[in-house]
Design goal:
By secondary structure, the protein is an alpha/beta fold. The chain is built from 13 helices and 14 strands. The strands form 4 sheets. A 7-stranded parallel β-sheet has the order 5-2-1-9-10-13-14, sandwiched between helices. Strands 7-6-8 form a 3-stranded antiparallel β-sheet. A two-stranded antiparallel sheet has the order 3-4. Strand 6 and strand 7 form a beta hairpin. Helix 1 runs parallel beside helix 2 and helix 1 packs across helix 13. The mean pLDDT is 97.
Length: 310
């Protein structure tokens, strides 16, 4: 079965790794959010792309879920000593990724081509695509004014109150090469347990993507468990937008886009309400503590997807 996953952030990377464990490499394509990308020290940094790739390559820091394993921060420490901006941690190995990516971007190469080469170098057999080769930047509307996503997320530690989002540049963006073809070829689309507002929404906002997905069977996995997000500000964003954070709220957010919805046993009481939306529910254990959990959840999602297609 040809599977297309939409992913961003640590939760998305974990399920992408689970899918990679149980599917032949040629049957899995992962489209990754680039709305989190930003420029720092003149370098183009792609946090979600790097998190997904490092995770697939088993290079990710197992404690944080992002950054590199066995990382050092000597360059970052020197920046701090010299009084430079120190709000965004740059590991030495990670810095090498940003340096080489930026060098090639400035030479005129496309982000999708660079990502493909990085994947090959890291031994990733699955196809990983940025949502677009054109820059799209997630802007967060807050009670302190509009903030670039990394300023909100890292520098301000998600403290400002959120009132909305804007994806700067998305109107001029095009799906990266291979994105629309991957959607057309997909027999099942999996929306990973990523933040619906700032990880999945930017992908869907790229012109042509949502329309291409409309005819596809789509299954989403809730990033909200028991009213809380395991990682990141998704639950806080739901609350500040006036929506009670819950698995049901995630299902309602995606609405008619979904044919199936997977959420945790903790929220089993919401199953009937999800079904009332016309979305088939699957209640199971969704917390991924290790690689075995990721593979198990991926297998259940694929079996559920196959059932929906039958």
């Amino acid at each position: 079965m040809k599977v297309l996953a939409l992913a961003g952030g640590v939760g998305g990377a974990k399920l992408a790794d689970g899918l990679a464990q149980v599917l032949p490499p040629e049957d899995l394509t992962i489209i990754v959010n680039t709305g989190d990308d930003f420029e720092h020290f003149g370098l183009t940094i792609c946090p979600d792309l790097d998190t997904v790739c490092y995770t697939l390559a088993e290079l990710a820091n197992p404690i944080t879920g992002w950054g590199r394993i066995d990382e050092t921060q000597q360059a970052f420490s020197n920046i701090q000593t010299l009084g430079g901006p120190s709000w965004f941690l740059l590991g030495d190995k990670d810095l090498g990724t940003h340096l080489e990516r930026t060098r090639r971007l400035r030479a005129g190469e496309a982000l999708s081509a660079i990502t493909a080469d990085f994947c090959a170098a890291w031994g990733i057999a699955q196809r990983v695509l940025p949502m677009s080769d054109q820059p799209v930047r997630t802007m967060v509307h807050t009670n302190e004014g509009e903030l670039a996503f990394q300023e909100y997320f890292v520098a301000r530690r998600c403290e400002p109150q959120v009132s909305g989002f804007r994806f700067d540049g998305v109107e001029q963006a095009q799906p990266a090469p291979g994105v629309l073809a991957a959607i057309a070829a997909a027999e099942l689309v999996v929306v990973c347990p990523s933040n619906p507002w700032v990880s999945v929404a930017p992908i869907l906002a790229v012109p042509g993507v949502r329309d291409a997905l409309a005819a596809k069977p789509i299954v989403a996995i809730s990033p909200i468990i028991g009213g809380q997000a395991l990682k990141g500000p998704a639950a806080k964003m739901f609350s500040e937008l006036g929506i009670l954070p819950s698995a049901l709220a995630v299902a309602q957010h995606y609405g008619s886009l979904l044919r199936g919805f997977v959420f945790d046993e903790v929220d089993a009481a919401q199953s009937e309400a999800v079904a009332a939306l016309g979305i088939m529910p699957l209640v199971t254990a969704t917390v991924m503590k290790d690689r075995s959990d990721r593979a198990q959840l991926a297998s259940q999602v694929l079996a559920f997807g196959s059932h929906l297609l039958a």
